[in-house]
């Protein structure tokens, strides 16, 4: 970083990472949705009424304009200097009969220099942006700059085709996790990173790296939230699945909104359960419709109230 680096605008939460176009190939043809895990998380935060900014890398092209317009509908602001690529990245998702997706990528990741000033309350990153050079090193440097000044959160969102050899990817994950206060990952991520461990052992292994809170999403089994002294399981919300694209990102957005409201990742058992239910509900609402379309705050609140009434 240097004195000429652009400064960030003031945001409650800053998301750092890739934005791309998800091209969904179906029997009826192809549909293009703005996507990329970090961009989806930022969009989800905006839909939940959070003041969110996105530091990313786009091309000054049709796909880049489509992404900017999409983010704008949720009042998500791109930071200065984001139009620095020759072309905007894309990922083609081929859907299976059960709604799950397989991805093929066309992506370059090269982040322009930035200073985190003013410092947001939360900085979130993850996915391809933390593994793919040359941009991954810039992301790690920004997190190191923010450590101790903001709550740092990380979702590796492993894409085996892009993260490289397992041993190197695991070391990258460990370095990023050690910088962060909260690490969220899927059961698939956990099994890929730590194939020799049970899921509960994975959360313990990550906590030993330094985070305060580890959150594991378990698909139809809900979620596991673990700290060094506590562990809670949250049941899944029953949902008719349209597709799973963006479900983990919607979970992450709802998790971040809950952390922002609490102001810390130091949580009691009751607070862990409350946070987990909020995040699970956010993910459940996302799978009920096609594409990465997370819930509004009103939709999330309504489902949480419905769940509360059903349990009482």
From TrEMBL:
InterPro entries named among the record's database cross-references:
Carboh/pur_kinase_PfkB_CS, PfkB_Carbo_kinase, PfkB_dom, Ribo/fructo_kinase, Ribokinase-like
Q: Where is the Carbohydrate kinase PfkB domain?
A: 11-295
Q: Which GO terms describe its molecular function?
A: ATP binding; fructokinase activity
One Pfam family recorded for the sequence: PfkB
Q: Which UniProt keywords apply?
A: ATP-binding, Kinase, Nucleotide-binding, Transferase
**Coiled coil regions, renumbered to chain:** none
Q: Does the keyword Zinc-finger apply?
A: no
GO terms for biological process? fructose metabolic process
- Record's family? Belongs to the carbohydrate kinase PfkB family.
Q: What is this protein called?
A: Carbohydrate kinase
Q: What is the lineage of its organism?
A: Bacteria, Bacillati, Actinomycetota, Actinomycetes, Micrococcales
